[in-house]
Write a structure and sequence with these properties.
about 130 residues, mainly alpha, 3 strands, about 60% helix, about 10% strand
Length: about 130
């Protein structure tokens, strides 16, 4: 029966109260950073882009976008009679190679979105 028993060993580590509070402070700071990054990612992924923005990103004409919509090659939403595209869907289509995009254009879009988001939060624009 001894070979079937699992023996667990637990070490007890003691630290000073001050060191414990410092460690907890650092853990909380990491948590706030991760939460902030997740929120920024969600905001970015839920962003809608206009016809003009997407045409610029993809380097194509608005007429080509219309053809793509008509052929169901690209998903879109109509809001008050205007076409909007979910950025997450666009990036997924680019990854799946059903759309082509100059990687630099997408990188610039992400960068500009981050800058605008920061300015909105700071109250600089809005």
């Amino acid at each position: 029966m001894q070979h079937n028993q699992i023996q667990s060993v637990m070490d007890v580590i003691t630290i000073e109260s001050k060191a414990y509070h410092e460690l907890m402070g650092k853990i909380e700071k990491i948590l706030r950073y991760v939460e902030k990054e997740e929120k920024a990612k969600t905001e970015y992924e839920n962003r809608l882009v206009t016809n003009d923005e997407l045409a610029d990103i993809l380097g194509i004409s608005k007429r080509t976008l219309q053809r793509m919509r008509s052929a169901d090659r690209i998903s879109y939403k109509m809001i008050y009679g205007r076409c909007y595209y979910d950025l997450h869907d666009i990036e997924e289509a680019i990854r799946n190679k059903s759309l082509y995009c100059n990687p630099q254009n997408l990188k610039e879009l992400r960068h500009n979105f981050e800058l605008k988001s920061r300015r909105v939060k700071d109250g600089t624009i809005g």
